[in-house]
Amino acid sequence: MNSEAIGAGFARSRAAYHAHAHHQRELAVQLAANAVQWVSAPVSSALEIGCGTGFLTEALRRHWRQAPIADYWLNDLVLADNLQPPAQRVHYLQGDISSVTLPDDVQLLLSSSALQWVADLPALLHRLRVHLATDALVVVSLYCGEHYRELRDTLGIGLPYWQVDDLRALFSEHFTYLWQREVRELYHFTTPHAVLKHIRLSGVGHLREQVTFNALRQFTNRYQALHDGRGYPLTYHAYQFIGRLR
Asked: Which helix (H) or strand (E) element contains residue 88?
């Protein structure tokens, strides 16, 4: 899916996403709470990739204990203009992070539940490091591995998620690890339809264009076999890390 389609899907579903994306919100809270433990000096410039409806921005503001960040850059394909990071000045950077003009000497790079959408993550990391300060702190979480594997098994659609070991190897090329965590959880639902509704409400809203009637019937039939006694499962699998630029 190209960036225009992703942005259009998110624009249609952003209100539902903010209300229903509980796992994404919790990832952002955990990430922000850990990130601030590694900030011991004033930060002049921060860049948040894929700010969305503000889960990480809001969590960072709640946990921030240092002097306000001088300049905070918010990036997404579709930007909300009411986010309030702990900063003196806020700048909006709308567009694909792989091609937009980036600020220089970024001391704090943040992203939560967004980088799995990047088509060429290695190329992006090479691009980003040119714009990072020598002591930059990098704070990231992204979905990986077995995330939404039931969707791939039943409908045959989904993102080509990176495996955790491959992410560790990729990030270690650029960053020295300070903290990392793998998160794997199962959500359970009463019916296959409830699973699909949850994905539509808590995702970027592109499923309704992809699921035909026949595919939906196939999805329901195949999902019946996944019932595990507690209900119909849906896998959430994410990787979080905090590091310094090498």
From this structure: strand 87-94
Which tokens sit at 172? 């270690």
pLDDT tens digits, residue range 48-89? Answer: 999 999 999 999 999 999 999 999 999 999 887 789 999 999
pLDDT higher than threshold 80 for residue 209: no
| Distance in angstroms (rounded) separating the CA atoms of residues 45 and 28 | 20
What is the percentage of the chain residues whose pLDDT exceeds 90?
A: 77
- Contact yes or no for 140/115 (Cβ under 8 A): yes
Q: How many percent of the chain have pLDDT more than 70? A: 91
> Nearest to residue 202, comparing CAs of 9, 5, 3, 22?
22
- Contacts with 73 (C-beta within 8 Å, 6 or more apart), sequence order: 45, 46, 47, 48, 91, 92, 93, 103, 106
3-state secondary structure of 40: coil
